Amino acid sequence: MKNRQFEKSFSKERLISPKRIIAADVTTGKTIWLTDKIFPQHFYPLSIKEYCEAIKKGVKEGIEKIPILSVSSKDIPYCDFNCVDCLACPSREWAISDNHIKYPIIPIELYKKVLKEISRYSKERGCENVRFELCGEGNPDLYKDRIEMIKFATQECGMKIVYVSTGSKMSEELIDCLAHYASCIRISFPGISTTAYEVYSGQVVRNSFEYDDAIRLVEKLCEKRKQYGREDELLIGTRTCIRPLNDGHYTDFLETVGRFGVDAFQAVKVLTPEYGKHQSQSMTCQAISELLELKENYRKFGISSFQIPNDLSKIYNDRSLREEVKPSRCWSSLVSPPLYGTNLMCCVLWDRITDLSYHYGVMEGNIGELETMMNGANAKFIKENCPKNCKDCCAYNDNKFMDSLWKVLKVQDNLDNIEFFFEY
Ligand code: SF4
Ligand code: SF4
User: What is the CB < 6 Å shell around ligand 2?
Assistant: First the structure.
């Protein structure tokens, strides 16, 4: 076990830099399972280790003892941007029409009850700090009680806040609150140059929040983080989508945000299949060579985590789920069910959001309601139909690693001897 790292708690740097995770029998030193598909930014400030421990708990004590580790909350269905290829537009129209979602904007007192209930459920199952991601189905800056909500979630529920936004409507107070309480702030850039930002953000009020404003915001967040002495615990990241007008700007962008102290950069593919034009569109040679070069030397800009798609041939991210690779169960719907208003759901795919049979139920924040909901009639329906009837999957990698670990742990004689280790 000499080269394996065992640490009770991990610093920011340790959390975003492991290369793989191993399950080993500590009595024999034998590795029984491993994966190098660990995507640290995806789990931060938790790590894949917590997910492995949750699966182990499920094998030992039963699936109903698996904690909710992460919730992505969609609590505001409005946005000041009108981005090209926005994923949220169709589902948020559905959400606010005909009262499909009871509380598209959650009243703060109800929100607090819901947060308490989620954290109670998970603490009783061994997870003290639920990852709570605020990403809206719109701009999370627009939720009027955001500061009160964040303080309650962190101080009263022990939750770890991940805040994802363009930041276009962040008040000074919200910037201050996030620098003080959040675990991760990720600023989304529709484009990474003045022109790309203007074109891809599609703002109705022309140029109301420009590329330079977004850059200044990132700088301010980094300064505030320093002011609060939180450089070791608050991860600040940036994300953009790989689109033609970004070509030739990735290096300048990384140099600029790296200078401020930004930790992470992520470039993702377009995700909307209905815009048929993307399906066969190739990435340009310029984008491919720039991204690959940066993958080799991003650290020279002070960036610790750099994430780009593995396959750079196409611009569109195909998430179709082929029969032969379907996992035995949708694990992500157990450990990371999203919250849309107060509706707890199995996942964020459009056809799952807009079909209420795939919602566990509507939370009211009553103590014990999650035990009922996660084992109720809809939970049974989800278990029976997901992934069996899923054509696409937004959590394929998560489901794949949890399924393979589950199968390996199921045949172990003594799970008390199995521990998880990172390799760096
Ligand atoms: S900022 Fe996000 S939610 Fe708003 S339009 Fe753009 S992609 Fe959609
Ligand atoms: S699409 Fe994937 S994440 Fe969503 S319910 Fe189906 S298997 Fe689960």
Answer: 330, 332-333, 346-347, 349, 352, 386-387, 390, 393-395, 399
Ligand 2 pocket test, pick from 332, 344, 350, 401 with the greatest ligand atom count within 8 Å of Cβ, gives 332
Give me the domains of the chain, ranges plus CATH numbers: 12-66+396-423 (no CATH), 70-307 (3.20.20.70)
Q: Ligand 1 atom closest to Cα of 188?
A: 1
Q: Which ligand gives the minimal distance to the CA of 398?
A: 2
Ligand 2, atom 8: nearest CA belongs to which residue?
Answer: 330
Nearest CA to ligand 2 atom 1: 393
Residue nearest atom 7 in ligand 1 by C-alpha distance: 86
Distance CA 280, CA 296 (A): 27
pLDDT digits (tens, 9 = 90+) for 100-155: 899 999 999 999 999 999 999 999 999 999 999 999 789 999 999 999 999 999 99
Cα(404) to ligand 2 centroid in Å equals 16
What are the tens digits of pLDDT across the range 141-164? 999 999 999 999 999 999 999 999
Output the CA–CA distances (angstroms, integers) from residue 166 to 116, 150, 163, 296, 304, in the order listed. 28, 18, 10, 27, 21
Q: Ligand 2: which residue has its CA nearest to atom 2? A: 393
**What pLDDT band is residue 278 in, cutting at 50, 70 and 90?**
low
Q: From 235, 215, 377, 398, select the one nearest 321 (Cα to Cα).
A: 398
